[in-house]
Amino acid sequence: MIELSFDELKARLFPLVRSTTYRAGLALPLVRAPFLPLLYAHVALEHEGVRRLLVPEDAALFGKTFSELLAIAVGNLALLDHELEAHPDAPGVMRLANDDGLQAARLLLPGFLAKIPELEGAVAAIPNAATLLIAPIADAAAVERLLDLSEAAWREHPAAISPVPYTLADDGAVAELSLSMQHPLRDRLRRAHAELLTHAYGEQRQSLLEAAAERGVDLEVAICAATSHPDFGTVTTTQLIEGLMPLTDLVFVVWHDGDEEHAVLVEREDLHRIAPSRLVPAGDFEPPLFAAVSFPNDHEIAALRAVAVWSAR
Q1: 69 with 99, same domain?
Q2: Residues 215 and 307 in one domain
């Protein structure tokens, strides 16, 4: 720990927006607060050009609550410049010009999107900490260009945050963008949500499997995948296994009858309704996991066949 008093350190606190960092499949204890689905506002201490995320022991040493530390960090961020410039490769899209690594954190500033005079309603993207993209919500072409840029930046950055676009809710808080069923970008939006969830479950799964391997424990964790369905558009899927399972839109149920393999694809709600005793919540995981404790019986399989959105023999 740096040998300085809190009064000397507090000007070096800044907020960061990040997804969950895992240890053994569980969220690493850090000074943070929920910000958006699957995203958190963290507090970092800047020292010699490096930002270190604060842990609960830091808060105890400072004698401050998480919310007090976050308020101080956001206040420090508010003192910096917030200049916007036109994106050179995307007409109608703006980006934050300041190259301070805190671009995405600007969404934590109260009223930041509402104070942009060029816009009457804004869509924002924070694919990584060093990128903040903004487009007018009424300009569908600009929003599509924003989604293209955000998706590419999210995929390419080692410390990705989110491909999902955000906007202001009626209460003035930052919220996920919502589009009507008829909007031409609705499935792009669904895909962004699915990819963010798939990424989070992938990070969680890798952490769980690595921890299990270190302990010499056999553990099965189902994969969460994003795919396109002709009726539902972009959805998340997984397979029913006797192990841990992510919470997805659709679930593959696969079984064997002699040498024949059978499979159905069902909506998750139908699986929980038809075979509720087969799945139980599994611990304090984020995003949530379920444990499949046993396989559906013949009666439940017949009921799942009847409601399946796809089946194969």
Answers
A1: no
A2: yes
Both 221 and 141 in one domain: the answer is: no
How far apart CA 32 and CA 15 sit, in angstroms, is: 9
Query: How many domains would you assign to the chain?
Result: 3
Residues 254 and 282 reside in one and the same domain: yes
Sequence-ordered list of residues with C-beta below 8 angstroms from that of 188, at least 6 positions apart, any chain: 144, 147
Q: How many CB atoms lie within 10 A of CB 76?
A: 17
Any idea which residue has 């962004």 for tokens?
192
pTM: 0.92
Tell me the per-residue pLDDT of 239-281, one tens digit each, with 9 for 90 and over. Answer: 999 899 999 999 999 998 888 999 999 999 999 999 999 999 9
For the stretch 223-234, what's the b/e string if a residue is b when 16 or more beta carbons lie within 10 angstroms of its beta carbon? ebbbeeeeeeeb
Cα–Cα dist 72/74, whole Å:
6
Containing structural domain, residue 125 = 84-178
Name the residue among 297, 285, 301, 296 with its Cα closest to residue 219. Answer: 285
